[in-house]
Amino acid sequence: MQWLRESMAALISLVILVLTASMMWMTFVAADATKEVKVPVATTAVPSDEAEKNARTYQTESYNRQKDIMLYALALLGTVTGYYLGRVPAEINAKRAENAADTAQRQLSRTQDRLADSAATVSAAQTELGQVKEQKAKVASAAKGAARALHDVRDTLATAQYPSFGPTGRGSLAGGAATAPASDAAMQQAIERIDAALRDIELETLG
């Protein structure tokens, strides 16, 4: 359909151009012909002066009509030339605008891709940060458990070493020999609890 519109516009423009050129030629020829008006032969009904006046009047009116028609044709020709002369820069400007729009679209696409990559990076960083915080909380919990276990071990060792005093350090040293097996068992239990606490700390740290 585009080629049909272009063909019709070109055909109409060509017709207007030919008609305008022919009208211009005929108008100028008619203007020059007014100098050579042939006066009709005078008769008794139409004097010679009146016949000449009528002939020149007719020729002048004919020239004026041709001139008016030529003005309309020139207006149409101006429309045609304006269309074709204005079309070239318009197409160039449209092409530039289209290229600028394409460039802007490509830049927007690249920017959106970068934003998507940045969002993915931020999300991964947040996930990693959450994992680190969770790991830190686990390590802190394990450390607290180890601290409590070591505190209990200290009390247990103190009780095992000084059974008559207890954790408060009160009592006497009498009966220390009788409680030696109990002290060995308590110390063994304390060692096992220390080992368990160390294993928990190691597992939490590696996990």
What does it look like?
The chain is mainly α and about 210 residues long. The protein has two domains: about 120 residues; about 80 residues, no CATH class. Helices cover about 85% and strands about 0% of the residues. It is built from three helices and no strands. About 5% of the residues have low confidence.
Instruction: Report the β-strand fraction as a percent range.
Output: under 5%
> How many strands?
0
The helical percent reads: over 70%
Main sheet properties? none
Structural class: mainly alpha
Measured between the Cα atoms of the first and last residue, the distance is: 72 Å
Oligomer: single chain
What is the overall pLDDT average? 73
Number of domains: 2
Order of helices and strands: HHH
| Principal-axes shape call | rod-shaped
- Summed up, the helix count is 3
Radius of gyration: 58 Å
Low-confidence stretches: 165-179
Draw up the topology in text.
Blueprint: H1 2-33, H2 48-161, H3 180-206
Helix pairs in contact: 1-2, 2-3
Features:
207 residues; mainly alpha; 3 helices; rod-shaped
Question: What's this model, at a glance?
Answer:
With 207 residues, the chain is an all-alpha fold. It has helices at residues 2-33, 48-161, 180-206.
